[in-house]
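Saturday, quiet lab. Running sequence design on the structure tokens for the scaffold JK sent over.
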């Protein structure tokens, strides 16, 4: 079997005014590692994905926090997209495909207790660049 927890890049890098959210996502990583260890004897793997900016209603609602500039939602999405290495915001189906990869025994049978960042390279770029 396989468990895939959905955390967030906010577990490893974060922004202003979401401390409780970031803390909960960090806790999800600790839970992922503990479950991987505890259920390994039963041949159950546990991993987490850490999505970055994915175009969802939650992301759009959060763009009003002031951490991304722009006169309207589309400007804010464009500015957020520029912060990724590949220059765009993710799609929900890309997150679903990552989850499928991690649950598929044929593709990921030797992966457990890990956090996979899926963020278009946003966390790869140095913040001062």
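Result came back. Writing it out in full:
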């Amino acid at each position: 079997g396989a468990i895939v927890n959905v955390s967030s890049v906010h577990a490893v890098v974060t922004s202003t005014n979401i401390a409780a959210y970031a803390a909960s996502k960090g806790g999800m990583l600790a839970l992922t590692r503990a479950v991987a260890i505890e259920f390994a004897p039963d041949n159950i793997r546990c991993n987490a994905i850490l999505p970055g900016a994915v175009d969802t209603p939650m992301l759009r609602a959060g763009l009003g926090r002031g951490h991304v500039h722009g006169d309207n939602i589309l400007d804010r999405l464009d500015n957020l997209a520029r912060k990724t290495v590949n220059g765009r915001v993710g799609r929900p189906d890309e997150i679903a495909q990552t989850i499928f990869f991690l649950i598929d025994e044929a593709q990921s049978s030797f992966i457990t207790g890990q956090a996979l960042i899926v963020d278009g390279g946003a966390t790869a770029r140095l913040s001062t660049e």
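Notes for JK: The mean pLDDT is 92. Helices lie at 19-39, 57-62, 73-81, 92-103, 105-108. Ask whether to fix the surface positions before the next round.
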